[in-house]
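User: Hello, can you help with two protein structures?

Assistant: Certainly.
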Amino acid sequence: MTNWQTILTDSITDPSDLPRHLRPDLQNSEKLTHHYPMRVNPYYLDLIHTKNDPIWLQAIPQTAEINDTVCALDTLAEERLSPVAGIVHKYRDRVLFLVANKCAMYCRFCTRKRKVGTAEMVVNEQTIIAGIDYIKSHPEVKDVLISGGDPLLLSDERLEWLLAKLRAIPAVEIIRLGTRVPCTLPSRITPNLCRILKKFHPIYINTHFNHPREITQESSTACTMLADSGIPLGCQTVLLRGVNDNLETIHHLMRGLLRIRVKPYYLFQGDLSRGTNHFRTTIECGQQIMRGLLGKISGMGIPTYAVDGPGGVGKIPLTPNYIKSLANTLVFENYEGRTCFYENGGS
């Protein structure tokens, strides 16, 4: 068994097994973890300083999850947009391909928490082959996003087999991997894994950091190894109440990501997914943060603030409005709030 697999084996899956000072106040932990499984591996557990801190909130179950009466089970309509098991085909030219049903750490705000880590999410040889066959039969699909669960929890051999199958499809131009293991289980990023990934360029990785404390020596090394393998890295951060819903935290996070060669890609407004309502912030909060970032960090460090629209309508940018009027002369505000003028083009 490899080092990262050993770490996973030692994960905590029951709140009562946590150190006493980190245990949540739960009346019925068994009911909660039955609906929404818990897994905190030793690496990520060590990042927690105190109960209710930004790392604790992301990893430890809370009663608010099963008291959520606001959000929907499948808010993004992934089931409706799934023509075959494991495939979500929302945009014409790309598909989401779910190839794993487990993660290195079960994030409490997960969009797919209704099924990840449970028997509800069936991933096996048949579903993966069905997904490959679907992609083969739809030449309009140029871009495949491999996700789950976390696809990097597959063995090296299984992942290599999958990537080879996808790369052999003539229409597929881009392969992306959606994975949080550089953040939650960085030891999974090994020289052999990087060797495999390099064989199938162009490969892109979207990873997921939500707080500056997640940028450790270990996660920095993992991202460096991937970047040195020629893999562009992006980060999809989620705006979370009590975790990162302020300018200072997001600013430090974006700077930290650039230092480890990860491009801030999206800052997501929290999805309306059942069990996550307590994490959601207002859109005004996110727009204020985005306004504050402009001028404090280069454009390289500014993500697109967006919401993944309910019902499967797709991602919608939530850009702050800098335009005060638009006619022959554009009147706008700069990042400092100063009114500026620009003569509009055209005749």
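That covers the first. Now for the second protein you mentioned:
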Amino acid sequence: MPVCAIYARVSDELQVRGESVAHQVSFMREFARRKSRQGEEEWLTPEALVFRDEGISGTTMAKRPAVLALLAQARAGVFGVVLFKGISRFARDTVDALVMLRTLQAYGLRVISFEENYDSAKESAELIFTMHSAVAQYESEKIGIRVRMGNYEKARAGKWSGRVPDGYRLDSVSKRLVMEPTRAAVIQRVFAYAEEGEECGRIAVRLNEAGVKTSAGRMWTALKVERIVRNPVYMGDVLYGRSLRKPAPPTPDDPLTRRYHVCANTDEGSVARVEGAHPALVERATFARIQALLRRGKGPGRIGLVRALGGFFYCACGEVMKLKIGGKGVAYYRCAARNGARAGCQQPYLRADAVEAAVTVALLRDLDIAVAANADALPSELREEVECLHNQAEPAIELLAALVQRVDVRSSAAPYSLLVTYRFR
């Protein structure tokens, strides 16, 4: 008797229209019961083999936890048939869909989609599957265009789309940002520190020492602070379309892998901007002064990725490694216990750019190891963050470290300690 796995997925848009995951599962179980009545064997659909992705985008299969769980069970040979209501529920990218189909077939599985009357056991099945997948991808692209157009028009009207920034809440009627007093006070505190010339890392330390948490209840990082002091939303402005998602060149060791990166939109005419759309948390003149400090590499700015190590990088003697800028503007780290040629630690100065490169490489390696070790348990949101970070040319060190610790809770709380045995020239 065939043992069947059911895969069901629904995006937020389809949930609004009433097509739930439960509806898809019920539909495919009824399909299996009809198959049982028509043949001599019973088609089994055990609850343990129902894989659900709810509120998940249909574009990239690698981000879906239920897909990964299905593949793990497929490798183990637990079932022989995969059922899904329609190819658009299965995948909306033609390449992803074909790769997934061939992977399942390589495990000896039969793949069935009800809406398209597709059955991989039939002749010319792959051609039919490819045609339906191309149609599903085209529909996904049209939906994406409609969503972007809708968000663009909302932004032009001063309304907010997407995640609500810290310090605000979204008015359910007007769809505009409204000040949230408690969090707004924290954001204004960040800008006050920045206007005083404090570095992002130092601001994060001051907030953490005061017991102030982020809106998500986490510790502050230099990157989190920098994102706030650079965000024009806190002047009361609504902007949409400042960034674009574009294909990125593949890596030399894996030239066939598709990668994407987020880049700035240089076409100002295509960016929707409305000033004074909601209450400002910082005056426009103050915001401009802070941006000037950022451009000059002073105050809340960072020198490359170096200042991300502040408070985390220690010498072998146990003292903190402090940032020092040489006469020619070259950044170094030196041990706080070093006292010139006199008594004290003799740890040589370390070139900051070499330290950055070593930390970045080590953390990327640790992140890949952690992802591989926890592949079946990672939520889709965390997978998106990992993918986005991998696609960045110069990923921020503090974000890398935070991701390693979030992906693998067993990782060290101070990942920079690996540098204490290094010697740079």
